[in-house]
Amino acid sequence: MNKTKTKKNSQVKEIWRRFRKSKTAMLGLVLLILILLIAIFADLIVPYQEAITQSSGRLQGPSAEHWFGTDELGRDLFARIVHGSRYSLLIGISTSIFALVIGGLLGAAAGYYGKTIDNVIMRLTDVVMTVPPILLSLAVVAALGANLRNLLIAITISCVPGMVRMVRSVVLTVIDNDYIEAARSYGGSDLRIILKYVIPNALGPIIVTTTMNVSSMILSASGLSFLGMGVQPPAPEWGALLSDARQYMFNAPYLLYIPGIFIVLAALCFNLAGDGLRDALDPKLKD
């Protein structure tokens, strides 16, 4: 037991050592931690009431009183950016986790059982993938209605097919190993083998893909909100802030630039961290 624990600790230390060697990965991690802290402590940084309270000071540029300026209704843009981080991160992280659970189970079943189950799951996946993800999300939101819950459902559905394919391809490389045959010979149930042996040994690529999916989900959510099909006012979601700023892009460009910068930084930090994690988990890469 102690040997197993020591081995796992040494593996984690080795992964962390390899991860730290990448300056871009560490930059992504620092940015990610910063954005997460902003989202977690948003209420301590600035009260939510300031993000939705209208005032007479409309379209005022950045100042000591309003760090990021005010919008067309006099609401403090800094407060809306800070609290908007919760919506963007909630959507990005939760949809990636939902897609991981659904796509992981379907992909693992397809790769493990093969034959009829594999054909049924993969043909259904092919059908869904014929529709571009953004159009599929738009169709789902249009059918269900524009709100946060339906936005989560739509983005998750658009993300599942890619996760199914990825997990299936990884599982196919794992199931031929001797320890899988040994588990079968000892009479282990299929569910136990998948959960205890197959998925843990395919976890590296799955974690990396899920991490990098978060950035795509944040961009998708921002795009849908920009089109008015996502989070509805007065919620300060970053994509919705961009949409509101379109008509003021010439006389108040900061309304456009600041939310855009935060969307780019949020997507970038997950991509950089995901790239570093992929390199750290790849045993083929030498120091």
Task: Walk me through this protein's architecture.
It is a single chain. 75% of the residues lie in helices and 0% in strands. The chain is elongated and about 75 Å long. It has 287 residues and is mainly alpha-helical. It has helices at 2-20, 23-40, 42-45, 49-52, 77-113, 115-129, 133-144, 148-174, 178-185, 190-201, 203-226, 238-245, 254-281. It has a single domain (14-39, 78-261), classed as MetI-like fold (Orthogonal Bundle), CATH 1.10.3720.10. Helix 2 crosses helix 5 (77-113), helix 2 (23-40) packs across helix 13 (254-281) and helix 8 packs antiparallel against helix 11.
Total separate domains: 1
CATH H level, superfamily name:
MetI-like
Rg calc = 22 Å
The helix count comes to 13
How much helix, percentage-wise, in residues?
over 70%
Low-confidence stretches: none
What is the molecular shape?
elongated
Could you say which structural class the secondary elements and strand pairing correspond to? mainly alpha
Helix and strand sequence: HHHHHHHHHHHHH
Fraction of residues in β-strands? under 5%
**CATH secondary-structure class:** Mainly Alpha
Sheet having the most strands: none
What's the short version?
The chain is built from 13 helices and no strands. It is mostly helical and 287 residues long. The mean pLDDT is 82.
Structural features:
287 residues; mainly alpha; MetI-like fold; 13 helices
Record the SSE blueprint.
Blueprint: H1 2-20, H2 23-40, H3 42-45, H4 49-52, H5 77-113, H6 115-129, H7 133-144, H8 148-174, H9 178-185, H10 190-201, H11 203-226, H12 238-245, H13 254-281
